[in-house]
Amino acid sequence: MTAVFKGETPGEQFITLKLCGLEKDQQFFEISLASKVIRVHDSSSESMVVFKFLETENQKIRPFYLDIIRRINKGDVFYTSIGRVTESLKNWNERYTYFRRIDSAIGKHILSGNQKLIMLSSNDYLGLTSHPKVKEAAIKAIERYGTGTGSTMVLSGTLDLHKYLEHKLAEFKGMESALLFGTGFMANAGTISTLFKKDYILLNDQYNHISIFEGCRFSGSRVRMFRHNDMEHLKKVLKIYKSHKKKALIVESVFSMDGDLAPLKEISALAREHGAVMLVDDAHASGVFGQNGRGSLSYFNLEGQVDIVTDSFGKAFAGIGGYVAGSKEIIDYLRHFSSMAIFTTSLSAATCATILAAMDVLESDQSLVAKFWQNVKVLREGLLSLGFDLGRSNAHILPVMIGNEALAYQFSQELQKEGIFANSVGRPAVPRGKARLRLAPMATHDLDDLERALAAFSKVGKKLHVIH
Ligand SMILES: Cc1ncc(COP(=O)(O)O)c(C=O)c1O
User: Fold this and answer.
1) Cα gap 121→138, rounded to integer Å
2) Residue from 255, 245, 189 nearest 217 by CA
3) Is 425 in the pocket of ligand 1 (CB under 6 A)?
């Protein structure tokens, strides 16, 4: 293995550390570190670099990569050498559970290499990615329209299917209008960065998704966070900005890593009281909450009381893409001014047909959603009775709290040996010291799958002393 340090002059803000020539099966990492080099040491046998981690804009994202090598605190002095990096990388490779290869369709069971695993970490909550009607609709769309659209929506890439899908989505969310985006990430980032400019204050729940924060960053607005789901704190923050005319309140309806619902009724009342625009990211509620899976506004009886909803097709809708729904005025504005919607190739016909078919299934067959929630109940109660801590989850996403990141990775790997695919998540997706396994059952799991999963959790939990 060799390591190349670029820009390793003391005082430089960025280093690119490239590790190459790795042994078979080792991962290739290119790591950009937002840090300040405070000393570079060169000896004949190895290059050595000492750098200090700084609070920079980039740092919010970069530590994720750094974590692969060694966990580091803001302000820590990180001291490494080629030899040490190689050693740490080996340790991490043993525990590294990202980018696991799947050699089958996504479903309740998957194949990783030759190993059959019970999938417990998919957002394909209803199992629609393998639903015969959904697959058939996608195949037929390819036969009729071909694979891609060959253009952006604004030029020659708007199909009748796009128009129809936007119309159905607006109806689905009880809004006047909707606009498609390439992903849910783009729906958040493209909407927020286009609608809110420098004169806005954007009030965010601290656990909002990174796509929301990226949108806020691109907008140039002032961003203020309130403590997660803490209405007293939100009231305090709103009070501070009482006289500020332009503000928006942005939350997820179901938080993706904690699995808890936002108190949307209270938040929307506060938004109205303080004249704030309200945006809800419904990525994890659509499909599984509300009437026929219409999501959180339907569930909380808030249709017509929230200004903007963003959503992803990558979860219960079994596809890829996203959209924003709101008033005709807002959507028309975004359609003509959001660069993330304009300067990008439109969704394929197969994707549109997938989403339309998934909505049809939701409309006509309530048994899938009922089975899904039954499975959530079995898994939740089983894990709690084994003694696991599920944090503040009160929805379908079940975070099995582990705390220590290395232990969470190890737990995930031990589970794989027992035939279970369960992702561990650490920083920056969750705060330091709050690593967890992020689980969600699927509607397609049967009782036997869940019982086998619980038996594996019991065995591994005891082995690693997470439970007794
Ligand atoms: C709450 C939330 N919003 C937005 C996104 C982004 O959606 P997509 O995967 O479609 O880009 C995700 C998914 O990671 C999410 O969890």
Assistant:
1) 24
2) 189
3) no
Model pLDDT for residues 321-341, shown as the tens digit of each residue: 999 999 999 999 999 999 999
Chain-centroid distance of CA 167 in Å reads 26
* Active-site amino acid positions: 256, 284, 315
Residue found under tokens 């067959």 = 365
Amino acid residing at 64: F
184 lines ligand 1 (CB under 6 A): yes
pLDDT (tens digit per residue) in 404-452: 888 998 999 999 999 999 999 988 889 888 999 999 999 999 999 999 9
Say how far apart CA 292 and CA 304 lie, in whole Å: 17
Could you give all domains of the chain from N- to C-terminal order, each with its CATH number? 2-95 (no CATH), 109-128+366-463 (3.90.1150.10), 149-347 (3.40.640.10)
Closest ligand 1 atom number to CA of residue 256 = 16
Of 183, 67, 145, the residue nearest 428 (C-alpha): 67
Asked, as a colleague might, if the bond just before 441 is cis with ω within 30 of 0, I would say no
Ligand 1 binding pocket mutation candidate from 256, 279, 347 (most atoms within 8 A of CB): 256
State the greatest distance between any 2 C-alpha atoms of the chain, in Å, as a whole number.
71
Do the strands 177-181 and 109-112 form a parallel or antiparallel pair, or are they unpaired? unpaired
For ligand 1, say whether the CB of 274 is within 6 Å of any of its atoms: no
Query: Which atom of ligand 1 is the closest one to the Cα of 255?
Result: 1
For residues 212 and 243, what is the distance between their CA atoms, to the nearest angstrom? Answer: 24
SS3 347: coil
pLDDT tens digit sequence for 199-248: 999 999 999 999 999 999 999 999 999 999 999 999 999 999 999 999 99
Q: How far apart are CA 213 and CA 273, in angstroms?
A: 24
pTM value is 0.83
Q: What is the DSSP letter of 346?
A: P
Check residue 98 and give its pLDDT.
80
* Half-sphere exposure (Cβ direction) of 261: Cα atoms closer than 13 Å: 17
